[in-house]
Amino acid sequence: NILVNHEDVLKIADFGWAAYTDVLRTTFCGTMDYLSPEMIKATGHDHNLDIWTVGVLLYEFLVGRPPFQSTNHTIVIEKILMCSINFPANFPPPAIDLVKRLLSLEPKLRLPLEDVLRHPWVLGQQGYAAEAVASAATAQPQSQQQPQLQPQLLVQQAVQQPVHPQMQQQIYQQVQQVQQHVQPQVQQHVQPQHPQMQLQQ
């Protein structure tokens, strides 16, 4: 849901799950590599979940792959719950600091977005970002005409991207298996004053 134009400007799309709320949400959604610990543990989540995703995306932009990648879903879940990250030797040290502060197991300890914008690594990239944004702002659309949609093509694309109805249940079963294995290690990283972050049995 992140679009990149020819000027390297990012656009965020698809806000179908967005909501204004003062309470923790329990909706389960997302792609395996980008799930936050609180989403996996089903303890409820708020806007700090999106900060976790920013950390995952930053790592992926710089390395070319997600930080918790594996062909085995159980291993992916275990890596996320342990926040097990390997940084390549050429990963910029300031960016390592930023990623670690974004990918905190404790949601409330993740770096707020306003502080992210003031982080030394982000400030060092602002020249390039400002140039890209300015270029995008002055760009003229190529056409004002609405595209002609082909219903048969849309149906064909939808059929080619089925959603398995049992995927969520399978993930939860895998989470339960992983929790039994990694619970002692995970609890070492969970603040005792935040009982809502304890793993569910």
Describe the structure concisely:
With 201 residues, this protein is an all-alpha fold. It has eight helices and two strands.
How much beta, percentage-wise? under 5%
Element pattern in H and E: EEHHHHHHHH
Strand count, sense and barrel status of the largest sheet are: 2 strands, antiparallel
The proportion of residues forming helix, as a percent range, comes to 40-55%
Q: Tally the helices.
A: 8
What is the CATH topology?
A: Transferase(Phosphotransferase), domain 1
The CATH class, by name, is: Mainly Alpha
Count of discrete domains = 1
Could you tell me the mean pLDDT?
74
Write the layout of secondary structure elements.
Blueprint lengths: L1 E3 L5 E3 L24 H5 L6 H16 L9 H10 L10 H10 L10 H4 L3 H19 L12 H9 L7 H21 L14
Antiparallel strand pairs: 1-2
Helix pairs in contact: 2-4, 3-8
Q: Notable features of this structure?
A:
201 residues, mainly alpha, Transferase(Phosphotransferase), domain 1, two-stranded antiparallel sheet, Protein kinase domain-containing protein, serine/threonine-protein kinase, nucleotide-binding, ATP binding, protein serine/threonine kinase activity
Q: Mind explaining what this structure looks like?
A:
The protein is mainly alpha-helical and 201 residues long. The protein has one domain (2-197): Transferase(Phosphotransferase) domain 1 (Transferase(Phosphotransferase), domain 1), CATH 1.10.510. The protein is built from eight helices and two strands. It has helices at 37-41, 48-63, 73-82, 93-102, 113-116, 120-138, 151-159, 167-187, and strands at 2-4, 10-12. The protein has a two-stranded antiparallel sheet. A hairpin with a 5-residue loop joins strand 1 (2-4) and strand 2. Helix 3 runs parallel beside helix 8 (167-187). The longest helix has 21 residues, at 167-187. The model is unreliable at 146-163 and 189-201 (pLDDT under 50). GO terms for molecular function: ATP binding; protein serine/threonine kinase activity. Keywords: ATP-binding, Kinase, Nucleotide-binding, Serine/threonine-protein kinase, Transferase. ATP binds at residue 14.
